[in-house]
Write a structure and sequence with these properties.
The chain is of the alpha/beta class and about 400 residues long. The protein has eleven helices and twelve strands. Helix content is about 35%, strand content about 15%.
């Protein structure tokens, strides 16, 4: 009997050791407490008609792994060829096709790549935003990069809106390597280096960040599944770890709004048949956008506090990695869009809206202002859509 008890104890200790190692290896302890609290959920479930805003943001890096120029061009060309074909098969409640938000990296700029993306933007199936990888940077260096690149996107490609009063480009942001506000705990060659990055982003024209979730990366925030404002502590990194939720009737506070995608666990998809895998809103061949995942994204229910009937689903990918393009441009994504349209667009219980990163922000701000009705009315509420007009003079220069 004693031997049996000892074996049971050893087995339990072994299981606990495996669980602890898993939590530590995947950095789950960073956000597990928030997940257990479920404090992003409303006090009561929304009743009546619910609206789903679906936004697909892309860390769009044609130069991933420093390929040849020909490979870079082939990656972009495939998107230009195949994505319009995929979008032609799908429409939301407003008659709009899916729209891809291309967060293009400053350090990989090639005008011919942006020209191809702008062509898709003119079709209404894409918009362009800012992505940046940098390490051991300075405030001056960061400002120079952002100013040069955003001006280039305006003057050469007409790809960003411009504030009418100040002439400043306006844009959404995703930080390379997840290291927003110098948040990587070890650096490892991509630690950012700028502790006051949130302030700099705001002052240079950024209105919203779409970096998270980052799990299992150690840059992941303890705040999950929320839309909130972060205030920069200019002397410390990762000031966005917590913040004040955006709410109906509220007002902007701090330095930058963050719109997070869904983060949780895949309880039906377990490692070793025991440990649930992380649901981090990342779409790729190894983790395709199945109907079950789509349902989990919607069920997470990310919303502006006080308005649970407007649900914001933001998922992400790295769209120019060859191993994932068959998923992103082929049958798996076609089936995901079809499921969204069949399950969440019946006009009675659900209405589906395909939105860009800019449009999602505008709709969030409309909810914050207490506006109601159909979210489609607020796609351009504060930040206008760029014209993506030809820039022949700049092109000639």
């Amino acid at each position: 009997m004693k031997i049996l008890v000892l074996l049971v104890v050893l087995l339990l200790l072994g299981v606990l050791a495996v669980v602890f190692a898993y939590l530590r290896q995947r950095n789950i302890s960073v956000w597990l407490r928030s997940y257990l609290r479920q404090d992003w959920k409303p006090e009561a479930r929304a009743s009546g008609l619910k609206h789903v805003m679906f936004c697909f943001v892309d860390h769009y890096e044609p130069g991933w792994q420093q390929p040849s120029y020909e490979v870079e061009c082939a990656r972009v060309a495939r998107w230009r060829r195949d994505y319009p074909t995929l979008c032609a098969l799908h429409r939301d409640a407003d008659g709009r096709a899916p729209v891809h938000s291309f967060f293009y990296p400053e350090e990989e700029y090639r005008p011919e790549h942006l020209d191809a993306l702008v062509e898709m933007c003119r079709m209404g199936i894409g918009e362009i935003e800012i992505h940046l990888h940098h390490d051991k940077d300075t405030e001056a260096g960061l400002r120079e990069k952002l100013r040069r690149f955003t001006r280039l996107l305006v003057e050469r490609h007409d790809a960003l809106p411009v504030d009418a009063a100040t002439g400043q480009p306006r844009w959404a942001f995703i930080h390379g390597n997840w290291a927003l506000d110098n948040s990587h705990p070890h650096g490892h060659g991509h630690g950012c280096g700028v502790n006051n990055e949130l302030v700099i982003l705001r002052e240079e024209g950024c209105y919203v960040d779409y970096t998270f979730p980052a799990a299992p990366d150690p840059c992941q925030t303890s705040t999950i599944n929320k839309i909130y404002y972060a205030t920069d502590d200019v002397n410390r990194p990762k000031s966005h770890d917590r913040g004040e939720r955006v709410k109906v009737g509220g007002r902007p506070v701090g330095d930058l709004m963050l719109i997070q995608g869904p983060l949780g666990f895949m309880w039906k998809h377990r490692k070793f048949g025991l440990l649930p895998r992380i649901e981090n809103a990342d779409v790729r061949t190894s983790n395709p956008p199945t109907p079950a995942r789509v349902d989990a994204w919607v069920e997470t229910g990310i919303h502006v506090q006080g308005k649970p009937d407007w649900i914001f689903v933001k998922v992400h990918t790295h769209g120019t990695q060859e191993r994932d393009m068959d998923t992103l441009l082929g049958q798996p994504m076609h089936e995901a869009f079809s499921h969204l349209e069949q399950r969440y667009n019946d006009g009675r219980e659900w209405k589906l809206h395909y939105v860009s990163a800019r449009e999602m922000y505008n709709i969030v701000k409309a909810a914050e202002a207490g506006l109601s009705g159909d979210p489609n009315e607020y796609r351009d509420y504060l930040i206008p859509r760029p014209a993506y007009a030809p820039r022949e003079q700049a092109r000639a220069a």
